[in-house]
Prior knowledge:
By secondary structure, the chain is of the alpha/beta class.
Amino acid sequence: MSVRAQILSILIRPNKFVYRFIQPSATFIRLFVHPPSWLGGHLLRSFGTKHQKTEFGGVPGVTFTPKKIHNENSLIVYFHGGGYSFGSSLTTHRIGLSNLAKITGRVCHSIDYRLAPEHQYPAALDDAVAAWKNIVEQNSKSEIILMGDSAGGGLSLALLLYLRDNNEILPNRFVLFSPWTNLTCNTETYYSKEKADPMFTKQMPKDAAERYVPKSIDKSNPYVSPFFGDFTGLPKGLIIAGENEILLDDSRIVGENAKKDGVEIEVQIWPKIFHDWWLFGPLLPESKKCLLEVQKWIQS
């Protein structure tokens, strides 16, 4: 881990202690996170891309277009993280998505699905399906790579299961960054990695799961927690996670189970790094290195 990553890890760690005392609502988290991340995204965005607000099948989103497109017939569909209750293409994810489009040389369609608790499951999945069908219809001859991080990574995997189960068109490949795939929040790394993780307490994902999943729905439903799904028939995939995150098992075990189900999948666990580090762009050298690995894998 670079010196800058170590410093950033120290700087973000106090959020864990603040969360324990405040127990913030989704509204408070958005007010606390969105304005500074919007400003940071504006100041640190990649100048190698442009963006445009649009919609996909009635679902709002943002298209990031690199100035240098490496492959006109290949595009990315992206679902952002944020515990299903905060985050958006132009706040928390603008830096990361701008760099993703620039480094991969591909147009990236990022989907701003509805957020909980105002819109609980299955709203996010319904939006994902609607947006996906629209993009596929408009790009029938293109290679489409599905990507997502954290909750958006879990949503991407749930979407894959839904598409397979309903005989819909699947992406050519998928990439998941630090995906949150198990909303029962009961894997071993919630405990073994809690001290090492500078970003999350084990209670944070549990609270997010309560906001997203109605009480009438079993959290082990594979469309809620794809961790519990059968992955047979899914396309080639890449999962990237940090060694120092409580969600590590959400990546590691999914990768192991997908291999057992016959999926061609690679799991990269980056040493000593934290959740979703690649979103920090020019602040961390590991960010560019991660996206270069993604580009290399896409081309393989």
